[in-house]
Amino acid sequence: MAITVEDANTYISANCIDIDDWNDAGEAKQLRIVNVASRDLAQFYPSYTIPDAAVYEFANVLATVYGDSVRLAQQGVSGFSLSGVASFNYKDSAINIPGGSTRKYIPQTALDIIGAENGVTLSKRGVMWSVM
Predict the structure, then answer these.
(1) Are 12 and 107 in contact (CB under 8 A)?
(2) Alpha helices of the chain — where are they, by DSSP H?
(3) Interval 49-60 mean pLDDT
(4) Helices 52-65/5-15 angle, 10° precision
(5) Surface-to-core class of residue 56, CB atoms within 10 Å of its CB (0-12 exposed, 13-18 middle, 19+ buried)
(6) What integer is the mean pLDDT of 43-72?
(7) Residue pLDDT, tens place only, 73-96
(8) How many whole angstroms separate alpha carbon 11 and alpha carbon 76?
(9) pTM of this prediction?
(10) How far is CA 81 from CA 72, 78, 88, in A?
């Protein structure tokens, strides 16, 4: 099927828990997010069929990662407050580097959907060398 913002809105509203950043993004930004999610999943998993649902799960995560409040942290703001109403502080480890890989943000849910479609098991965990 074709991936659309309307279908993404329907899927995310029905199947994702935290949708505030997705809903706050304008339609143009939502389209960019869906395009990036689709492109990156196809690039990272080229030998697999990527279901629309996996793209929408990933798009919702990207909406949070590249949302307005996280963007301030990306730009170097360590904290700010609004006239005593609210105060926001950012952890250094939560800041992603703009232009970096989005691969680390692919949720396990999206990998499970891709795996189910292709009859394989995909995981974010990998085998690595260890020194004892």
Answers:
(1) no
(2) 5-15, 20-24, 27-44, 52-65, 68-74, 108-118
(3) 97
(4) 80
(5) buried
(6) 90
(7) 666 666 666 776 776 666 654 555
(8) 33
(9) 0.80
(10) 13, 11, 6
